[in-house]
Specification:
Strand content: under 5%
Helix content: 55-70%
Number of strands: 0
Number of helices: 5
Largest sheet: none
Length: 105
């Protein structure tokens, strides 16, 4: 693993205006600056590389997906608190798992 995280090298590439717009829209949907989106995509750390079935690896979530995930995490926190007080809600756990599967599919 590289220890120096300072970005000192620059890569240039040529794209059409339509390609530039498409890439910029994808970066915005992920809530990333264009350079960060391109870096993650090129390194196989984004949704583009993980969209192939069986590809595995992390995916980038859009802003609405991140908000939904945060909401689900909050629900999980609440269910955990209930479980610690002896009020275990199995149906709540199953519903949460179903929502997570839909979000991350």
């Amino acid at each position: 693993m590289e220890t120096n995280l300072t970005k000192t090298h620059r890569l240039d590439l040529r794209v059409t205006e339509d390609e530039r717009k498409q890439i910029a829209q994808k970066a915005e949907a992920c809530g990333l600056k264009l350079s960060e989106y391109l870096r993650r995509s090129a390194l196989g750390l984004g949704r583009e590389s993980a969209s192939t079935p069986g590809a595995g690896g992390p995916t980038l979530l859009t802003k609405p997906e991140r908000a939904q995930l945060a909401s689900l995490a909050n629900n999980l926190n609440q269910l955990t608190r209930y479980a610690h007080t002896g009020q275990f809600d199995v149906s709540g756990i199953h519903g949460l798992i179903s929502q997570l599967n839909q979000l991350l599919a």
